[in-house]
Amino acid sequence: MSSRVPVLLSSSSVFPEPTAAAFELAASAGYDGLEVMVWTDRVSQDAGALKGLSDHYNLPVLSVHAPCLLVTQRVWSPDPWERLNRAAQLAETLGAPTVVVHPPFSWQRDYAKNFASGLAKVQAKHPDLAFAIENMFPVKMAGRWFVPYTPGWDPTETGFDAYTLDLSHCAASRINALGMADKMGAGLKHVHLGDGTGEGRDEHLVPGRGNQPCAELLRSLSARGFTGSVALEVSTRKASSRAEREADLRESLEFARKHLAPAESATPAITRA
Questions:
Q1: Phi and psi (nearest 5°) for 150?
Q2: pLDDT-based confidence at residue 3 (cuts at 50, 70, 90)
Q3: Extended beta strands in 114-174, E state
Q4: CA dihedral sign of residues 156, 119, 91, 196
């Protein structure tokens, strides 16, 4: 990997294909490693199976996405703290330095009430891991907007030690990703690279196919002192074939590599009026 920022493939990017396919496709396209989305696929929950795939394809797992989605609320346990602890254990076993975490859903009242203090306790048990809280987005239903997260979709309003910047979520919340990166500051530890049109929904387009400043954000990372990884989190669910899915993943990787400035040629961060 040399000194460049590692470019990972999120296993969610190959859905509806299984986790094992993400390793195969990442190796074929030339990614530096994997982000494993822990979900209902048993392989995504199994450290031994994941280690076997990592060894077989010679691809490290460098981030683990904790099971925070609506469809993963009973993966491992209905208790969100148990799920977070299991995700941390999985990351440590695999040698992944980052655990991606969503803010609590509004209906998870006890979890939300104690999220900051509870997260600090989990962090104390796993001091070598970065628990990177991800920016989310409001949701429109029946013509009205609501925020399904507590205290909100923007984790910088609360303040955490580490963040994941998701560009598709920036588009869905109609904010500029560069501005969100500025708010995250030195806490920016991980990037979910995808694009969106700002139409109020989470699209996870191949970077360059929406209107987010994906290239500018990548070029700014060195000047921001970024030392984490960039995970391509794009939707290929509508791909008509494996060949089309692989083409999208190759295009995404090429985009990331083209615009990620190496540390030795860092340019000043972009300034906005």
A1: -120, 130
A2: low
A3: 130-134, 139-141, 144-146, 163-166
A4: negative
